[in-house]
Amino acid sequence: MEATVLREIAEEFGAPVYVYDSGQIRSQFERLTRAFSQIPRLKLNYAAKALSNLTILRLMKHLGSGLDTVSIQEVRLGLLAGFAPQDIIYTPNGVSLEEIEEAAALGVRINIDNLSILEQFGTRHPEIPVCIRINPHVMAGGNSKISVGHIDSKFGISIHQIPHLLRIVDLTGMRVNGIHMHTGSDILDIDVFLYASEILFDTALQFKDLEFIDFGSGFKVPYREGDIQTNVEELGERLGGRFNAFCKEYGRELTLAFEPGKFLVSQAGYFMARVNVVKQTTSTVFAGVDSGFNHLIRPMLYGASHEIVNISNPDGKERYYSVVGYICETDTFGSNRRISEITEGDLLCFKNAGAYCFTMASNYNSRYRPAEVLWHEGKAYLIRERETFEDLVRNQVDLPALFDPQVADAH
């Protein structure tokens, strides 16, 4: 998006503010679809946890996506956004059997990732088909905190437990309609992904009633000019051909499913914050903004890098700044970044702010969460209002009489 448009949006809706470009989301969805065009039955299930605003979910449905959910709340958001239950897959981790049963009662597809719950659910509901999440014991992803398919991960049923899994399926009489894996995020090495896929194919041969195989996602997007990214076109060509060959071996056409989140929305997102203060210390120039890790935690949580641009002075002389927030804790967005000269009052834009940004925002330091805006076909639409003080205290129960005898006497 152009700096002039972003500045106009910030003037209209205030800052800090998140902005999402629907055209970029559409472009990514179509790119991934084209990459796997050789697959007769392809299903993209958008990972709601990346960005769960209702308007974004409605956009995904409009594009033809299904929905990948990890909580009963995301399931309900998906239904509210208009997704048919059969187009929603529910892949929780560590939740109660009761929550899984609640999701099943809503008619969505169920994906189970541990033997204990699988046996309990299969015993009580053998008539409900389930997908099974396999842990292929493959280390993949850009950071240990987002690598979820390795041997020490809490996710999935170990490939070494397949015999036990098969005994549970036989004992309960349940039907397995899908096999799933997700190795991690920011995957670059296609060969590693394909290696894990072979493990999934081998596992799939153990089940005779499959309808789909879900390969997760984790495709890396570029975070700066010239940054490396997953070559989804090459992956589509290589995995697509292998999948079609497997379907012939299996004896019928299966659906190839993915659950992209970051790939679809990351580059479509922009976060804007205004500079409160420029502070020179003995060794650093800080640009302090009216935001913090309460709005954008990824840099502090796992070292994520977001390009930062001064859209108030995009063509100015570059200088080095450390961009920091207003949270009363170490709160750094970027250290020693080359940014066009910053003055107090300037508007800074953080790119790649579409995925795992607003959804991980909080009210830490009793700060308000920002507004969200959708840029769609040349017009800006408010899709979430900025929080107010009333929002902060809405669900708190104020009991002044506990500590003030005069109030207690008045009652």
TrEMBL record:
Its pathway is: Amino-acid biosynthesis; L-lysine biosynthesis via DAP pathway; L-lysine from DL-2,6-diaminopimelate: step 1/1
Q: Where is the Orn/DAP/Arg decarboxylase 2 N-terminal domain?
A: 23-266
Q: Which reaction does it catalyse?
A: meso-2,6-diaminopimelate + H(+) = L-lysine + CO2
Q: Does this UniProt record's set of keywords contain Lyase?
A: yes
Q: Which residues form a coiled coil?
A: none
| Cofactors demanded by this protein | pyridoxal 5'-phosphate
Where is pyridoxal 5'-phosphate bound in this sequence?
A: 218, 356
UniProt keyword list? Amino-acid biosynthesis, Decarboxylase, Lyase, Lysine biosynthesis, Pyridoxal phosphate
Orn/DAP/Arg decarboxylase 2 C-terminal domain mapped to chain residues: 18-354
Instruction: Write down the PROSITE patterns for this protein, in alphabetical order.
Output: ODR_DC_2_1 (PS00878)
Residues in the signal sequence? none
- What is the E.C. number? 4.1.1.20
Give the binding site residues for substrate.
Answer: 298, 302, 329, 356
The protein's GO terms of the molecular function aspect are: diaminopimelate decarboxylase activity
Positions of modified residues (N6-(pyridoxal phosphate)lysine): 49
Tell me its family: Belongs to the Orn/Lys/Arg decarboxylase class-II family. LysA subfamily.
Role: Specifically catalyzes the decarboxylation of meso-diaminopimelate (meso-DAP) to L-lysine.
On subunit structure and binding partners, the annotation says: Homodimer.
Write down the NCBIfam families for this protein, in alphabetical order.
lysA
Q: Which HAMAP family match?
A: LysA (MF_02120)
- What is the name of the protein in this document? Diaminopimelate decarboxylase
Q: What is the scientific name of the source organism?
A: Robiginitalea marina
Classification of source organism? Bacteria, Pseudomonadati, Bacteroidota, Flavobacteriia, Flavobacteriales
